[in-house]
Specification:
alpha+beta; Alpha-Beta Plaits; 2 domains; five-stranded mixed beta sheet; 13 helices; 64% helix; elongated; membrane; diguanylate cyclase activity
Amino acid sequence: MSVVTPSDQFDWISAYLKARDLQVIWRGAIFGVTAVQAALPLVLLSSPFGPDHALTRAVAVAASAAGASAAILWLVCWPTRQQSIAFSITSSMAIAALLLSMSNPYSGLVGCTTFAALGGFLGYFHAPRYVVANFAVATVCTAILAYRLLVSSGDAALVISSVITVASLNVGVPFGIQYLVHSLRTDLRTSDRDSLTGLHNRRSFYDSVCQLIALAQRRTGMHLTVAVIDLDNFKHLNDTRGHAVGDEALVAVAAAFEQVCRPTAVIARVGGEEFVIADADTMSNPTERAERLRLAVAALPFGITASIGTTGVPLGGRRVLRDIELIDDLIRTSDTAMYEAKRAGGNGVRHHPAPEPPLLT
């Protein structure tokens, strides 16, 4: 039974950054920004506009400690989706606590623009509901501080202009980033698909499998399995019945693979009649599933069969190999097994165990 759930925006972007060796840069940037923000409550303790009572000063110190803890998370490792959400909630509460503890309401009101930075992070990495939740906290703080400023100063023009500035940033930045990321992801999904079959192409296959690995290795006992499939007699089909029928056969094969494979599987067309499938599960040997793929191709009314090579490797631990290098190794091993099946006459399945990748000590 599968224990890997479909990915969300955080997992997709995390895998994208990891595949391009950008996670360390992002971790450093988020840690730096969060650490600087966490230091601000301590700096404001010496300001006449900052917290001026024992309780509010204690709140400021607590907010600083919470912010520092959130920053350390990014210094230690790339967080999971749940840890990132916890980071966002902690940061949002810390910002709210500090701003509401300010003795000068104008300083607190202007400080509500800080929510826009956190909202931008949420818009980039997480679902819209988290952006809305952060905006709701920002709105409550803005309303409270605007009321305090109006009561203390009586300057309605100052209050209105400040609220407009804060609202513009807290709406424009997070929701603008959210819309942009959603649009980019939609475009990438379209451009990363094989135009004939609708399956992944080679580039999106690697990106999606990296994401699959990131999800799977959070569980124990998981294996990454890869199958390389080459259609037998496909050239003969093209030569005798025409390329239009050949295209129909490829579309039918792709549909059969999608029907046989589990929802978590990543299926790609990587050549004229060559396909590759990756999946993560507790099973280390995908021969049984590969046999179902073989039977599905043989049952199609095109007179073609499939030579299939498979392999698998356990996930877990910190590997020496990067994810892309691991995928390359598994494809090479499966490819060797596939050619063994083809030399044996085709319409068969061969499995070659892959050597376990070395782990960092």
